[in-house]
Amino acid sequence: MDESSRNNAGLPRKTLPMTDRTSPKPTGPGFFTNLWHAVGLLFWVILLRTLNHVRIHNLENIPKRGEHGVLICSNHISALDPFVIAVTAMPFFSPVWWRAPAKEELFRWPLVRAIIGTWGGFPVRRGKRDFEAIETMTRLLPMSVIVIFPEGRRSTDGRLQPGKAGVGKIVYDARPAKVIPVLIEGSDRLLPKGRILPRFFQTVGITYGPPLDLSRFFIPDSSAELSQKIVDVIMNAIDGLR
């Protein structure tokens, strides 16, 4: 991701070591970027909530406007899942950045890279432990809302896959104010894998679970085993929302 794309996304120019970090004051995307987000959100609201139907469960668990340090962890069954979360939880004209990692292949095209960047997206290498992406999310999480799919890739059969230990590492290092498990159901029927255009008049369900108390894991032990235990708890909470 080049420097201009980082600046458009509100990303720092350089990721600092944990020992050099302070707690930065959250900053929002600004008026014009928020206006751009509003146009995009309106499109997805029309597609997902007018031409289709989205049932939202447990509205009280959705992050409040202006909250930051929130990590939303969802299952992943369709390319539309980030937008299902956006139209059900992301406020119009948000005072803080909402961010999400995206597969690095999307950043090969300058126009796509620029668009994703203005939405707070940043690249992640799938199938590998991407330490740079982990470090980026750890730094940005205290001042943002980050949406992440701990499975790392879409499930081909709708079943929940094991979570990646890197997500547990992010939680351990960043100590988010909230970790919210989310379960999406039916988005794979709306846009099955391999289909370009979505179907209409489908029903998608999304359930927001209560924030998880993961404080018992914040001990002087940053092992890979501990990171895996953290993400296992998150995945079990997602599965429990069925």
Terminal-residue CA separation: 37 Å
What is the level 1 CATH name?
Answer: Alpha Beta
DSSP helix fraction: 25-40%
Give me the side-by-side strand order of the main sheet. 1-7-6-2-5-3-4
So how many helices? Answer: 8
CATH homologous superfamily - what is it?
Answer: Glycerol-3-phosphate (1)-acyltransferase
Q: What is the CATH topology assignment? A: Glycerol-3-phosphate (1)-acyltransferase
Count of domain modules: 1
Measured by DSSP, the beta-strand proportion falls in 15-25%
Q: How is the main sheet built?
A: 7 strands, mixed
| Rg over C-alpha atoms, rounded to the nearest angstrom | 17 Å
Envelope shape: globular
Low-confidence stretches: 1-22
Secondary-structure-based class equals: alpha/beta
The appropriate CATH architecture is 3-Layer(aba) Sandwich
Overall pLDDT score: 89
SSE succession: HHEEHEHEHEHEHEH
Number of strands: 7
Produce the secondary structure layout.
Elements lengths: L2 H6 L22 H20 L2 E5 L12 E5 L6 H9 L7 E7 L6 H9 L2 E4 L6 H10 L3 E5 L16 H10 L3 E8 L1 H4 L12 E6 L15 H16 L3
Helix pairs in contact: 2-3, 5-6, 6-8
